[in-house]
Each structure stands twice: as structure tokens, then as C-alpha cells.
Amino acid sequence: MTDGWNARPLPPPANGQPLPPAGGAPQPGSPWWSDALADPWRDPYAPTAVVVQTPASAAAPSPEAVTDPDAPRRSYTPVLLICLVTALLAGGLGGTLGFVFAVRSGYANGGAGTSLGAPAEEPPAAANRAPDSLAGVAAKVLPSVVTVRVTGAIGSGFVVSADGYVITNDHVVEDADNDTLSVAFSDGSTAKAELVGRDPQSDVAVIKVAKSGLTPVAFGNSDALAVGDPVLAFGSPLALRNTVTYGIVSALDRTIEAGEGGTTRYYAAIQTDAAVNQGNSGGPLVNAAGQVVGVNSVIRSVAGNETEAGNIGLAFAIPINQARRVGGDIIDHGKARRTVIGAEVVTGGRSTSGARLRSVEPAGPAAAAGMKPGDVVTKIDGHVLEDGTDLIALVRKYDPGATVSVEYRRGTKTETASVTLVADSN
Question: Does residue 65 or residue 96 have the better pLDDT?
Fold first, then answer.
């Protein structure tokens, strides 16, 4: 489109008609040209021209658009801080909403709540514990442990035969009669019991339960124990039935003289730190294989009397080799044999190191080995003796007929001898 400043003459029409007047005026009376001046697109004779327009992007920049290189640059720190705060707020809000929805979902699904931690495997049932685990040993032994009930007292015991024989402590049943004696098993069942026999000096007794088909314990070898071996104590401390405690063998051949105002009991005990309290008496001390190695009997306490005594980690058990022999004698013969050396010793003082012989039986084992009154026994089978109590307790540990080495002092000389122990004549 143009304004006509560069218009040039057009060639004459091909039909020989005259050219229109200058200035593009239409012929008079022609409808075609009546509005040609108002609509140049309808004028076929209007000259044409191509006008090239410059793109806006190529135009010279205005002075305001020029950047001053010395002008200070805008800081982006506020923008970054705003973005960081926004992200934290969004994360916190999202986490809170997620927690709320999860908790609501948990309550909607039965009140389980949010599950925390990694999924855990179901532990095996108690019956499936490994036999040599503590739980396995407890499961094995508990059916053989009983609570011994006597009027006004509670103790413990353990089944040693399927037909109902139970070993316990003598001091548990010393006031019992067959009308007041009963036992309770780990499954809650109870049965009447009767006293078979007692040996007050060894603190071992046997009762018979009026029930058959019982599970007897397995016996271990108390002579094979070592300090540090793990052990479990079973019983009913303070009337809490089916209690199991765990510890180690703290010492071996700890000589014990027990009994106040009655029979004095002597034995070379197994010391343990397994918790033992009143009511544990007569219960089994068991090794890691589930075998009975001792009979829990006494504790040492800082209390002033037995009623107030409690566990302080010093408990003592009769070695099972001794208790089994005594119990077997009671069942088979109605009374127990006591092992003796054939001499009377001085007790109640530690003025000398060793067991001084007050008298020696002429036909006894000590006399046969050449020992005389006044000799001081310092060792028996390697165990150092401090006084006469040690000699009595250690001798009773052995079976009648056992031969032991003895070291003794006569004047300034040290002698050794082999002594074959015997059962007393009572």
C-alpha cells in the first residue's frame, strides 16, 4: 500500500478505451468507480510498491535500557532465604499431616496405631527354645520341681523317681507330719505326701508323693563342677512358685556348719551367686545341661536372724553326689550312712592352722593309717584345712570306702598317709 507519491503512468487499456482522468477520477456514470477513491483496493490501475518494515527487535535501544556496569547488583540472599523457609515450612506441614493421617488410619483399622521400627520376625514359641538354652533348661526341669507345703512353712523339692520320691532339705520337713505334708507341681496340681526319712546332720530328707507317672530329674556330677560354671536355681522363694534364677558357681567345697539351737549340719557346699531366698530350700541347683548338681540349702546374709535374711549373692547347695547317696540310703534302708575318718576333732577355734585330732578310734581308719591324738591334719585330698569343721564337712562329701590322701603335722614334722574312709556304725 502507498500514498501515491511515486505513481507512474499505466499502459492504455487493451480494449481501446480512453484512460481515466488524472488523479484517478472515475468516469461519470460508472458504478464501478463510484467509490474508488474511498477503496483503493478496487482500483485496478493504482500503482503498487513494496514497503519493508523494520522489526521492533532491531530498533535502536532507548537510553533507559542501557545497563550501567558500575551500578550495584541486586542481592539474591533474601530470595534464597524465603525459598528455604518456605521449603521447611512445607516439609514440616507435610510431615505433620502425614503423621496425623497415618495415626487416624491406624485407629480406623482397629487401633493398631503407628508402626515404629523395622518389621520383626515372630520369636519362636517357648516350647521351641533350643534345649541347651536357659529357657530350654528351665522348660525341661520345671515339671520335676515341687513346692513342699508344711503347716506354717513352704520349701522346695525335686522328683527323683517316676513313682513319686522327692528329695528336699531336712529343715524343710522337720516339723511335718503326714497330715500336714503336701506338694504342688509346676502345672498347678497338688498331691498329698508322706515323710520317708530324714538325715538331720546332712540336711537331706526324702518324701513320697501320692502320684505316679512323674518326670524325675537328670543327675549331674557335682565333682565335675568348676568355678565359673553357669547354674540355675529352682524353687519357691517367699512362696513364689516356679521361680528360676541364674548365676555361676562362685566356689567349691565351701565348708558349712549350720544349725542354731538344734542339730549341727556339716557339708562341703557349692557356693553360687544365683538368687536364693527363704522357700528355695530343698530345690535343685542345675547345670547348663539341665542336670541337678546340688540341693539349695542355706544362704549367708547380713541380717540379724533367719526371718530377716535375704539374698545377697551368697547361697550354698549340698553337692548332689552327697545328697543322692544320702537320699538313696534313706529310700533303701530308712536311714543314711555317714562317712567318717575314725577320729574326734577339736572345733570352735582357729588357734592352729588345721584340724587337731582330740582322739583316735583304735580300730578306725585314722589309726590304721598311723595317725595319733594330737596330730594336726592340714590337708585332705589337696584341700587346705583351717579347723576341725573343715575336716568333718569334707570327709562327709566322700562315699564310704573312698580312699583319700591326708597330710598332717606331728610336732615339727609333716607326714602323709592314705586313709580309707568308712560308714559310721549308728
Answer: 96
